Amino acid sequence: MSEEAVKAAEAPEEAATEAATEDIHYQAVEKEGSVTAIWEMQGQKHIRTIDPRSSEGKQILALFETAA
Q1: Cβ-proximal residues to 36 (8 Å cutoff; 6+ apart), any chain
Q2: DSSP-based three-state secondary structure for 12
Q3: Potential cystine with 27: which of 20, 36, 39, 63 (Cβ 3.0-4.6 Å)?
Q4: pLDDT value at position 18?
């Protein structure tokens, strides 16, 4: 295999590694002063939405409140 072919084959792996190393963070979506959803983000990419009434949502909100 040529050197160029090897580099082309490795490029997707490097991109996946860079994406995996980006920190996951959470954004609260508020409407009229109350949290309606929590977005789990990795860089600029939306991973999933968490219900703030769920046990996981309550844990995330509790961590945020203790940090503030």
Answers
A1: 29, 30, 52
A2: helix
A3: 39
A4: 58
